[in-house]
Amino acid sequence: MNPTNINRRDFIQTNVALIVGTSGSAFLGETHAQAVPSVVGPPPAALDTWIKINADGTVLANFGKMDCGQGIDVAIAQIVAEELDVSHDKVQVSLGDTRLSPNQGGGSGSTGLRLGSLPLRNAAAEARRLLVENAATHLGVLATQLSVDNGKVFITSNPSKSVTYAELIGGKNFSTNLTWNNQIGNTMNVQGQAKPKDPADYKIVGKGIKRKDIETKVSAVEHYTAHIRPDNLLHARAVRPQVAGAEPLEVDASSIAHIKGAKSFVKGSFVAVVAESEWAAIKASRALKVKWSNVNGPLGGGEHNTYNYIRQATPTAANAIPAFGGKKDWDIKPTMAALSTSAKVLEADYECAFQSHARMSPSCGVVDVRGDQVQIWADTQKPHFLRVGIAKFLGVPAENVQVKWMHGAGSYGRSDGDEAPYEAALLSKEFGRPVRMQWSREEGMAWDPKAPAAIISMKAGLSANNDVTGWYFKAKGFNGWDVRFTGESPEHVLVGMQTGHKKWNAYNFNVPEESYRFANHVHWWETVPPYLQEASPMRTAHMRAPQEMQTRFGQESFIDEVAHAAGMHPVDFRLKHMQDPREIEVVKTAAQRMGWPNKVTKKSTGKIATGWGLALHAGYGSYAAVACEVEVNKESGRIWVKKVSIAHDCGLMVNPIGVRAALEGQIMQGLSRALHEEVHFNEKRVTSVDWNTYKIANVSDIPGEIDLVFINRPDKPMGGAGEPAIVCFPAAIANAVFDATGVRIRRYPLVAERVKKALNT
């Protein structure tokens, strides 16, 4: 894959300047000549930064990203092993350690393999070239006369004459530079003289290899951030106000005097306690008496007013581009003119709820500040950016801050993962001891950044012949960039805002990018102001496939509606308007697994109705079509997804087992977000603060049948497998509910009460 063959999202995320206009809206502008950026940590141009051959012949690959729970280290090991000609179990992958790896952008945008593997592949190929050349000198032959098998270089015509990688360089440095493309983040790449292998020659890449970390996780051996215990450790807990935005007026330190070693801390509106043990810190956080300021209705009218608020709010910004990509104008006049003369006009609004990351284990950070030297243990999604942000927060040089990434409880976007490390850093600096800050379950759900609520407004015109005459898409919702998708500066985390760092002003939502071609097509997005500008429990940010679930819920549901209005099967309607052959193939494949075009849904007239629906998403270099067969209990409103069929094309598959696991995870999280997950809040606070009040999918939601079809394309670049399918679930399920009942549900999650009400209306 050519390192310049990237989409707008990847490039803009890491390589363009943020321009803030005088109007207050922000957009991303173009860059010109790329200057050499300042590098903190290992130099990207050094081969030794990426690949090391240990004394025993094993290989260390330093990867500047982390694992979001997909087992990406296995695939990276396969790629490195392939280029080095060693067995995959000889390769150890170090993930996201700022002491060892350069900043490759962390986990984001399903870039782990499709972009993150490129420098490691090139570095491994160059390492092999150098090793073979050294072996040629050692054995007294030409390099072209040599072959390699599992780290042993031998004369092809006389295999008894050989030398191993360990004998050539084990434990030593290559001391060789590569050509670096002078980019930091997702698009970082390096290149040596060696040309990587042709996919036709792969022996390891493409094979299904099981993950190495499952055994340590299920046997409770795995070390997580919460397990880190430096000597002389203090345990910390924050004290949060019961009304969002309230400021501490008085803090009675004497109220925790009875708890041995407990101390309170106040800076700005951040209140915390430290103690010698976890339980003592919990008790102190509950016992500390704080008088808070009065704040009236900081969260508007609460959740019951969400969609009225969105409709009535004056937009903060508007654009006609996907989540990343510059400023683009749009003109609705041709579309509106076409609609005005159409034989039939359809209109619908689709409502998308706030959703929480609700990580299985809430934020935890362990930080040891010793003068201007800082050591951090965290399960952040972007360790290198966390290093920069905490350096700013503490006023120390970034090169003095080291982040050790730890396995966490799953992270899919801008979760609460960056929050506790910042708070621990502040407290460690204050008390001169290492600090472990642990958020509670309630904090993790109430105070984490949320996926933004939105309304997707759709209109379409049909001619007398049922041809589409105009297509109108408008997304209006809370800002996807209320806080940034990295913790690279204090204004993007709660404690930063609480201690005087004013939140930035930048705006972002999304529009669909699939290849549908409609006459007089217009699309754009608008963002609305937050309920509370600073330190809000309802601050919004990226969540897995940022704003793509919202936009595809509207687009893919409305396509279903228009197809029925035009007298066409929704699959045939899609195929009529799609241009991309890879989109066409996944849609046909997923539909055929449900019996299209011959199957006629058998709708029950009894208690249970059945139907099936489909949705498409193309993005992250991949294509996914999800078809769902559902059973709808017409008395209770409960939806059970009886069967899921996914057709998935992510180009070259490195590890089919990993792709399957990624899709299975998306099925459960997709069902959970489509059927259950919804942030509940009133005008004062978030009220969904545990697994009873913030519902997620459980065992009863497991589909009766899962049918996965992998379309492997070794001739195509690797795409991301961590996000495309999950986007489809709300629309696919809502379309299936319509097929089963004839009732259209236009708000997700499709909770049973909502469905029951719609069926009885």
Topology:
Layout lengths: L7 H8 L2 E3 L5 E3 L18 H4 E3 L5 E5 L8 H13 L6 E5 L21 H23 L6 E4 L2 E4 L2 E7 H5 L9 E2 L9 E2 L22 H5 L15 E6 L8 E5 L10 E5 L2 E6 L2 H10 L1 E4 L13 H7 L4 E3 L13 H8 L3 E9 L2 E2 L7 E7 L2 E6 L4 H12 L6 E5 L13 H13 L3 E4 L2 H6 L3 E2 L2 E9 L5 E11 L15 H5 L22 E8 L19 H18 L4 H8 L3 H13 L14 E12 L2 E12 L5 E11 L6 H20 L29 E6 L18 H13 L5 E2 L3 H8 L2
Parallel strand pairs: 4-5, 11-22, 17-31, 20-21, 25-26, 29-30
Antiparallel strand pairs: 1-2, 3-4, 6-7, 7-8, 9-10, 11-14, 12-15, 13-14, 16-26, 17-24, 18-23, 19-20, 19-22, 24-25, 27-28, 28-29
Helix pairs in contact: 3-4, 10-11, 14-15, 14-18, 17-18
Question: What does this molecule look like?
Answer:
With 761 residues, the protein is an alpha+beta fold. Among the domains are: 36-218, Aldehyde Oxidoreductase, domain 4 (2-Layer Sandwich), CATH 3.30.365; 225-296 and 363-439, Aldehyde oxidase/xanthine dehydrogenase, molybdopterin binding domain (Aldehyde Oxidoreductase, domain 4); 303-356 and 449-484 and 508-528, Aldehyde Oxidoreductase, domain 4 (2-Layer Sandwich), CATH 3.30.365. Helix content is 26%, strand content 23%. It is built from 19 helices and 31 strands. It has a 7-stranded mixed beta sheet with strand order 13-14-11-22-19-20-21, with helices on both faces. Strand 28 (622-633) and strand 29 (639-649) form a beta hairpin. Helix 3 (72-84) runs parallel beside helix 4, helix 14 (548-565) packs across helix 15 and helix 17 (656-675) crosses helix 18. The longest helix is centred in the N-terminal third of the chain and has 23 residues, at 117-139.
